[in-house]
Amino acid sequence: MIDFDNKKQVAKAIQYTNVNPNLTKEGLLKHLETCVKYDFDAAMIAPCYVSLAKEVLKGTGIKVATTLNFPQANDTLEMKLAALKALVKVEPDQFDFPPNPGLLIGGREKEYFEEMKQIVEVSHAAGIVVKSMLEFGFLNEKQKVRAAQLACEAGIDWVKQSSGWGVGGCAATVEDVKILKENIQLPCRVKVSGKVNTLEKMQAMFAAGAELVGTSSGPAICDGLAGDPNAY
Ligand SMILES: O=C[C@H](O)COP(=O)(O)O
């Protein structure tokens, strides 16, 4: 567990996110500048900006994290793998992707699992860390448990209860973080996201088992201010 009185440790548990489709190159550069200023763990940005972010953040130790088939989740596996092939070429350190919730809800666990497994295999071979956004807003209790277990079995590095963009109130809850934590084992770990916009909320999520947070309120959290609840 990090020391929440230590700003450096707090910053190093934050992946500062701006994956808005209307983000311009200038906006991206400002975002990266903020990542450097606070020394966040990662800049979480859209795939179209990975190359530029890699160049700008070179030597800072700040990771470049991005997304795959985000936020919709329902491309075919073939499409996801083709996009992944292109993503591997621009060398992000990590990416977050949503496995298709409809497969799990429809009882097609094998396909749900297989999708994650194949994505993990390609990514790990390229040295890329993979996080699954399990979109708990779509799932009932039993499905949430299975989603976490299957992601862990498939070799996913980090499970996350939501992209922060899904349905069903995508705001993170302590209960959902606990479900993740209780249904995975190391080396799989828990990332949380969705309206985690204050230090207090981050602290509560970490007490429940999260070790990383994806948030658009990184600076506000570090400065002890309230983040923008309507950031997205
Ligand atoms: O980490 C991903 C989400 O987009 C976070 O957004 P949010 O902090 O505005 O809820």
TrEMBL record:
Record's keyword annotation contains Lyase: yes
Keyword Nucleus: no
Top-level EC class: lyase
Origin superkingdom: Bacteria
Entry EC number(s): 4.1.2.4
GO molecular function per UniProt: deoxyribose-phosphate aldolase activity
Coiled coil, from the record: none
Keywords: Cytoplasm, Lyase, Schiff base
PANTHER family named in the record: DEOXYRIBOSE-PHOSPHATE ALDOLASE
NCBIfam families reported for this sequence: deoC
Name this protein carries in UniProt: Deoxyribose-phosphate aldolase
Species of origin: Sporomusa acidovorans (strain ATCC 49682 / DSM 3132 / Mol)
